[in-house]
């Protein structure tokens, strides 16, 4: 599959995701990725120095898709409470889609996520950072109680773990899950009102 | 190890726990249990009809230890908010002890719990039932907002999953975990105040 397109990091990562989808996390190799791109594996290594670096980068790309989508909610207009609800519901929905629409790829990424603790820590810091911006704005605007936004963001993130931690993915499609999620949101949002 | 003590279900279960501690969930057999008790395996089967029944019973006994201890908090005197905090903190503390004091046995029971979904469902129903009693009393006494106690109990239980679900056990000894837990409790309790 020779190609005349420039070999960019993004092309390599998109192809890596395809290879992972096909072969699974255990079997996918850099040679498979190079072959699918019609290039030598040395060309791939020019962009990602090791197989581990490539796996980390593709994992980060997968996680960033969620945080990038949510950052739009942080920057939107409107009351902080509204945005907080939309943000938490958006995270849950994104996870539901990732788990439900392509379960094999989700399982593969769950393996990769387990290997990439630094990437995951950054991802969680990114997400709780977004939450903290909403909490700070709500707090400063008098919509929420005065609080340490980082601490509160962390508590909100932990409190909703059932709806974003992949360990709970099998529960995300059970009957009544949306109602339970809404009850939890109501409780959390009430806890922030002055 | 012949013995003249009467062979009760409780003695069998206590010995089963010892055998599990020694051999692990994969290797422990009914014959091991019978041998440790100095009785025939037929005597054990008279109390527990199958190996699966014995494993379920010992798992239930392990889980009940936590719920029995917590039921004292439900029935105690004092404001519902106080009891709610003590109950949730008590659950976290009990889990921390189970995981930290005897990690091998905890790992063994984590395997057994994974096999015994009915026992686990009953255990969770038991725990959320206890929480619902506190919430109902608080709600009826005007300390908490009017709410459906079962729904709210479920939300509280889910919100604190990070502090009782064995999947998170590795986090229970990390620095700052107590502070994070307290922040979460504060947020949840504020959400219940009228």
UniProtKB/TrEMBL annotation, chains A, B:
Keywords: DNA-binding, Transcription, Transcription regulation. PROSITE patterns: HTH_TETR_2 (PS50977). Residues 6-66 form the HTH tetR-type domain. Residues 29-48 bind DNA. This is TetR family transcriptional regulator. It comes from Streptomyces lasiicapitis. The lineage of its organism: Bacteria, Bacillati, Actinomycetota, Actinomycetes, Kitasatosporales.
């Amino acid at each position: 599959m020779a190609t005349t397109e420039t070999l960019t990091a993004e092309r390599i990562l998109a192809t890596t995701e395809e290879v992972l989808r096909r072969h699974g996390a255990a079997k996918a190799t850099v040679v498979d990725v190079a072959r699918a791109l019609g290039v030598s594996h040395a060309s791939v290594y020019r962009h990602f120095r090791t197989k581990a670096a490539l796996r980390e980068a593709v994992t980060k790309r997968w996680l960033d898709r969620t945080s990038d989508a949510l950052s739009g909610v942080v920057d939107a207009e409107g009351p902080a409470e509204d945005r907080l609800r939309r943000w938490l519901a958006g995270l849950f929905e994104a996870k539901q889609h990732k788990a439900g629409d392509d379960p094999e790829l989700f399982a593969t990424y769950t393996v990769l996520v387990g290997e990439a603790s630094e990437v995951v820590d950054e991802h969680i810091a990114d997400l709780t950072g977004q939450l903290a911006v909403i909490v700070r704005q709500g707090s400063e605007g008098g919509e929420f109680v005065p609080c340490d936004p980082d601490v509160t963001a962390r508590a909100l993130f932990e409190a909703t773990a059932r709806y974003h931690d992949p360990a709970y993915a099998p529960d995300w499609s059970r009957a009544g899950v949306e109602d339970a999620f809404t009850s939890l949101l109501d409780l959390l949002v009430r806890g922030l009102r002055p």
